[in-house]
Amino acid sequence: MNNMNKKIYLGVVVLMMAFTACQNSPKKTQEEAEPVAKIWTKEQAQAWQNENGWLRGSNFNPSTAINQLETWQAESFDTATIDRELGWAENIGMNCMRVYLHHVAWEVDKDGFKGRMDKYLDIADSHGIKTIFVIFDDCWNPTYHAGRQPDPKPGVHNSGWVRDPGDLLYEDSTLVDELEVYVKDVLTTFKDDKRIALWDLYNEPGNSNYGNRSMPLLKKVFDWGWEVRPSQPLSAGVWNLSLSDLNKFQVENSDVITYHNYEGPEKHQAAIDTLKLYGRPLVCTEYMARRNNSLFTNIMPILKKEHIGATNWGLVAGKSNTKYAWDEPISDGSEPPLWFHEIFHTDGKPYKQEEVDLIKSLTLGE
Questions:
Q1: HSE-CB for 325 with a 13 A CA cutoff
Q2: What is the pLDDT of residues 195-245, one digit of tens each?
Q3: How far apart are CA 366 and CA 361, in angstroms?
Q4: Fewest CB within a 10 Å sphere: which of 2, 29, 49, 188?
Q5: Domains along the chain?
């Protein structure tokens, strides 16, 4: 989920260097040893994978929501659309959705926000779908506000999506204290909820030219997560070859390793081969951009074979406009010649029946 001019695909060189450095780092004496790590052991991570099986699904926000705030605010929380669209996901064998939160929706109405999370989880569970919740996000618009959200800009990919916490983190020195309360409140409330598969603590840290400016918040959200230590795994997905410091921290501190890759099969396989060296379960939390040769037909079979969680971008075309490509706006809002993301039209008709048939052939009976 990114503008093409900002996206640098996940590569292998930096991660190989991080892995080698980790393996070759000097061993500490018992006196120098740090406190017991909060990260899961590899055995705990494997037990989680054994329990959850092959997770496959989409990044999901209802088609009636332009962004995370419209998804979660009381006045626009659309249970009918959520239920209908998750039913379409269930019918093609999906069992996991990745869903973004936003601290402002919590700030305005803490108990109501958590109640809506619970209601969403009830709906998803009724369709046999677990949830990956995303807490922070460095993508798209830097500022935001509670209340009515903007209308989509015709033909512009994710025109109304908002970062969390975005630029406000660097403008308000007190915000980090509120974010700590938010993260701990949400994690504590749902720390033992079996409907939740995983906590994705920070989507694409360093995006939007933040770079290492995102490192302090990345470290803090892991610290806050470890203080709560939910029963579900904690992770933050690697996504950008150039962000070596962030990559190293993410892969070394995630209970299970998550990543994004919008490349074709050869480069995607190379990324998998590198990440497997860490000996932990893998979940691909973003893939599938048709223009880029990242397709259900050539990537999803690899992920199933490798037993890697497969979460494509986009379920139903809607207000987020992610059927349009990152860097190819269509100003009159007409239909793109090739959908970039998404599986279904708003009436439930598949964009490509052969894709849906392929997905069902991989998922049903699992």
A1: 16
A2: 999 999 999 999 999 999 999 999 999 999 999 999 999 999 999 989 999
A3: 10
A4: 29
A5: 53-363 (3.20.20.80)
Place of tokens 């880029």: 292
* Three-state DSSP class for residue 164: strand
Helix and strand numbers (H, E) in the chain are: 13, 8
Residue with tokens 């207000």: 319
Amino acid at 112: G
Which run of H or E residues covers position 360? helix 353-363
Q: Are 215 and 273 in contact (CB under 8 A)?
A: no
DSSP per-residue string spanning 232-283: S-EE--B--TT-HHHHHHHHHH-SSEEEE--S-HHHHHHHHHHHGGG-S-EE
- Tokens of residue 112, six digits: 């109501």
Q: Which of 287, 286, 219 is nearest to 254 (CA)?
A: 219
% helix, strand, coil for the chain, step of 5 = 40, 15, 45
- Pair of tokens at residue 226: 């470890």
Residue with tokens 């892991």: 222
CA distance 130 to 125: 6
The tokens for 184 are 């701990």
- Tokens (6 digits) for 151: 């209308």
Query: Half-sphere exposure of residue 42, counting CA atoms within 13 Å on the CB side?
Result: 7
For residue 196, the SS3 value is strand
